[in-house]
């Protein structure tokens, strides 16, 4: 499997207006514990998902290839799948409320 370039994710999040430079505001561990924070994915809302992705991208800035390692471990995909699930749920709620 070809690993992604972290800068592609940065560009996409920025383009969507979802890059969180203040990702720390969304985190509950101090000092920041990346692995503990990622345990929150199953119950995360869309905003937390984008903050977790932003956190991973910032980590990659300081620890090169950490994003690729997390991608290979399935952590990035689990966030993207959660984002999709949240958006699908929100969309169906919006459709129901419009009827």
Task: Looking at this protein, list some descriptive labels.
single chain, 99 residues, mainly alpha, globular, 5 helices
Compile the SSE list and pairings:
Blueprint (H helix, E strand, L loop, with lengths): L5 H11 L17 H5 L7 H17 L3 H7 L2 H24 L1
Describe the structure.
- There is one protein chain.
- By secondary structure, the chain is mainly alpha-helical.
- 65% of the residues lie in helices and 0% in strands.
- The protein has helices spanning 6-16, 34-38, 46-62, 66-72, 75-98.
- Helix 1 (6-16) packs antiparallel against helix 3, helix 3 (46-62) packs across helix 4 (66-72) and helix 3 packs antiparallel against helix 5 (75-98).
- The radius of gyration is 14 Å and the shape is globular.
- The N and C termini lie far apart (44 Å).
- Mean pLDDT is 88; it is low at 94-99.
SSE arrangement, N to C: HHHHH
Q: Count the helices. How many?
A: 5
Coarse morphology = globular
User: Averaging pLDDT over every residue, what do you get?
Assistant: 88
Strand content: under 5%
Q: What's this, in brief?
A:
The protein has helices at about 5-15, 35-40, 45-60, 65-70, 75-99. The protein is mainly α.
